[in-house]
Design brief:
Blueprint (H helix, E strand, L loop, with lengths): L1 E5 L4 H12 L3 E6 L8 E3 L7 H10 L6 E4 L20 H22 L10 E5 L15 H24 L4 E5 L24 H13 L9 E2 L5 E2 L2
Parallel strand pairs: 1-2, 1-4, 2-3, 4-5, 5-6, 6-7
Antiparallel strand pairs: 7-8
The structure holds NADP nicotinamide-adenine-dinucleotide phosphate.
Length: about 230
């Protein structure tokens, strides 16, 4: 398969790209960092120009069979996930929406021209279980939860549009499971034994699910094992 991985310098994105390569897939990567090459585009998917940049990069390389969008943010600088309403700010909410939603939108807009009746696609956007409204019994983490819920709605919409124009396409949001990374680091102490997964474990699982994606999963939020999480 030819697979596009965005957010490829991140913990999970890098592990997915490496594993796909090991399995013999042709891998194209996008990241804000790294050296540009025939298979790597240096691009910030938050920028308005990014959709055109990615579009040009892909046009020269032909359609991809699958996409992993691994971009996301949970904390940064002085900002940690909110514990209460009083900590919720417009700036941090907007930053979450930009990185957790808009990057996926720009990437989809760039890939869209390649998604056709004869070239359906498998699309996996890394989301999070805490973006499930149904599953939210704890509260807190306002900006992250709201932005992931918005991402989930984007994915449902995209699955409907691409399902119509390119039947056979499967578009999902997926919770990767709590995985060792800079993003999860401040919260690892509270994780139950055996529930913090290595990047390699997560990559293997997500790639396995991607290869087996089926029509019943289209437009869903999936757990790392492929089971459905209620929106
Ligand atoms: N790790 C977990 O336990 C966990 C749990 C649930 C969900 N997730 C989700 O899984 C995805 C990957 O997480 P991860 O653990 O691999 O995190 P990570 O190592 O922090 O990687 C996230 C990547 O997102 C991109 N990104 C971050 N901030 C950005 C910004 N301001 N502008 C543009 N791009 C930015 C970067 O990609 P480039 O540097 O390559 O551009 C970054 O490497 C995220 O969507 C996260 O929400 C992770």
């Amino acid at each position: 398969m030819r697979v596009l991985v965005a957010g490829a310098s991140g913990a999970i994105g890098a592990a997915i790209a490496e594993k796909l390569s090991d399995e013999g897939d042709q891998v194209l990567t996008i990241s804000r960092s790294g050296e540009p090459s025939s298979t790597h585009l240096v691009c910030d998917l938050t920028s308005a120009e990014s959709a055109d940049q990615v579009s040009r990069f892909l046009a020269e390389r032909g359609p991809v069979d699958a996409v992993f969008c691994c971009t996301g943010i949970l904390h940064g600088g002085w900002n940690m996930p909110e514990k209460s309403l009083s900590q919720l700010t417009a700036e941090w909410l907007q930053q979450n929406m930009l990185v957790n939603v808009q990057t996926h939108i720009h990437l989809a807009q760039a890939v869209a021209p390649q998604v056709t009746r004869t070239a359906p696609i498998k699309w996996v956007s890394l989301s999070a279980m805490v973006g499930s409204i149904e599953d939210n019994g704890l509260g807190g983490w306002y900006s992250y939860r709201m932005s992931k819920a918005a991402l989930n709605m984007f994915i449902r919409n995209l699955s409907i549009e691409w399902g119509r124009k390119a039947p056979g396409s499967v578009v999902v949001a997926q919770h990767p499971g709590t995985t060792e990374s800079a993003l999860s680091k401040p919260f690892q102490a509270g994780i139950a034994d055996g529930k913090l997964y290595t990047q390699a474990q997560t990559a293997e699982r997500l790639i396995g699910v991607m290869r087996g994606l089926n029509a019943a999963q289209n437009g869903r939020l999936l757990h790392w094992d492929g089971s459905v999480i209620p929106f």
